[in-house]
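Q: I'm building a small set of examples for a reading group on sequence design. Run inverse folding on the following structure and report the sequence directly after it, with nothing in between.
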């Protein structure tokens, strides 16, 4: 997952441990500097290739999740190309992370590969480091999209895997035919 010599920061290790201890199913990482929603994989299957489409087995789900955010964001969904992020307009404001640019050690890839959590990365605004007076506007541009994204947690199959006596089975492997990515049950 990490390239040789890659140092994992203590706070990243703490989040990784937390993610493994609680069965999260959906998350988003908020960044600045662009207007786009990216989804895994962020690291190309061919590390020497830049901007190479690198889908997960759950590509359709990730596209649906990314679109749920992008379509509800008033600026990302704006069709104007005369703004930052204009190069993502024809893509509907979303892109596979590795197709935009490949990097190793991203949390979205970690979550997908090592937990049950599906994560997208949201570039919330044009400025990498927005000024304090811009934060209120950025919050209002993203509030509805965040709520719409959070509602996506109710999509899909939900339930309890239990034995013949009705006792929940911890760490039961759940497979979906045609998708080569299993998930496991929580506590």
């Amino acid at each position: 997952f990490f390239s040789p010599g890659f140092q994992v920061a203590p706070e990243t290790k703490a989040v990784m441990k937390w993610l493994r201890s609680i069965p999260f199913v959906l998350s988003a990482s908020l960044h600045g500097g662009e207007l786009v929603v990216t989804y895994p994989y962020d690291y190309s299957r061919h590390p020497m290739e830049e901007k190479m489409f690198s889908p997960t087995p759950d590509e359709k789900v990730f596209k649906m999740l990314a679109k749920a955010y992008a379509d509800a964001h008033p600026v990302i969904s704006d069709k104007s190309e005369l703004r930052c992020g204009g190069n993502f307009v024809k893509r509907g404001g979303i892109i596979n992370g590795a197709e935009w640019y490949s990097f190793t050690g991203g949390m979205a890839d970690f979550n997908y590969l090592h937990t049950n959590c599906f994560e997208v990365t949201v570039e919330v605004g044009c400025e990498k480091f927005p000024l304090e007076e811009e934060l209120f506007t950025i919050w209002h541009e993203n509030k509805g999209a965040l709520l719409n994204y959070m509602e996506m947690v109710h999509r899909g199959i939900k339930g309890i895997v239990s034995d013949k006596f009705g006792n929940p089975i911890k760490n039961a492997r759940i497979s979906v035919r045609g998708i080569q990515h299993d998930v496991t049950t929580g506590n």
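The longest strand covers residues 118-125.
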